[in-house]
DNA sequence: AAGAGGAGACCCCGTTTCTG
DNA sequence: CAGAAACGGGGTCTCCTCTT
């Protein structure tokens, strides 16, 4: 426990570093998923008044509904496997109806590498960063932006990145590298973003369209793949999302949350 | 109709090596 | 040393089927 206390003390310094960053959520949780450290951005986004209001509580208590449940499942997975969750692209749906794309990273918090419980997982530490603006100052921004536009406007088709890269006079490797550098996303992640943005729009604006039909219109080969990806990204199935946007409680888990 | 899951194919991404 | 190229393993997607 001594080691644990020391580590948490060190983490308070990290917490202080993340406090002034409005686009990054920072948190540390114990083995039971209870918040031990949070930054101010998380306090704001969870609609809490202070850090104290979050400490000792789990994401399921702070974010009632599918999103809190999804955070909880992620935490359990990191803690039980001891494996990090890196670069998970997520759409966070806020209580005020807004939505924002984030990249989430979670690492297991381990005990000191010596002593009886050497290396034991004590909890999880993570950040969730809002997707930033593209780096427009990069010399080949124009070329890559054109490719990105192609991906966004052809979201209903399979990704033919190799062909598009060749047409632009670039290699596939170069395109992927530049996408990361400029957009902080891989081409496939950008395609996923475009498809799910379109799907969210159709779920709300075309209530008569079936989930399967929307899947087809958004470039998925079937409803199964669409539902799987939609749920992995938003924590909700397409029909739950549709009911939520129509102002109904989705069946299953109770839902009304902030990020 | 919608959701979930398994198998197999293929593509992406992280890492290493090469080059200027 | 930075950027480009190459490569192999893992992850993702499609197809298919079953369940609710």
UniProtKB/TrEMBL annotation:
Keywords: DNA-binding, Transcription, Transcription regulation. Residues 145-244 form the HTH araC/xylS-type domain. SMART domains: HTH_ARAC (SM00342). One of its GO terms (molecular function) is DNA-binding transcription factor activity. SUPFAM superfamilies: Homeodomain-like, PYP-like sensor domain (PAS domain). Pfam families: HTH_18, PAS_4. InterPro entries: AraC_XylS_family_regulators, Homeodomain-like_sf, HTH_AraC, HTH_AraC-typ_CS, PAS-like_dom_sf, PAS_4, Tscrpt_reg_AraC-type_HTH. This is AraC family transcriptional regulator. It comes from Kinneretia aquatilis.
